[in-house]
Amino acid sequence: MKEFELNDIVETKKTHPCGSNKWEIIRMGADIKIRCTGCDRIVMIPRSKFEKSVKKVLKNEEK
């Protein structure tokens, strides 16, 4: 299981239609809500699907 926290930026395997593959985690639970950093689209997906689609976690510098 990959380690990620609220407000982390994650890079996904596939790119979003806007061209970006970086997402910010804005809600965590059984489902995870993420926001595209390119176009600000918000998507909610199940945790299992999210964990499979994450390539790497880019930690937020604010911590």
UniProtKB/TrEMBL annotation:
By what name is this protein known? DUF951 domain-containing protein
InterPro entries registered for this protein in UniProt: DUF951
Pfam families reported for this sequence? DUF951
Source organism of this protein record: Clostridium sulfidigenes
Query: Taxonomic lineage per UniProt?
Result: Bacteria, Bacillati, Bacillota, Clostridia, Eubacteriales
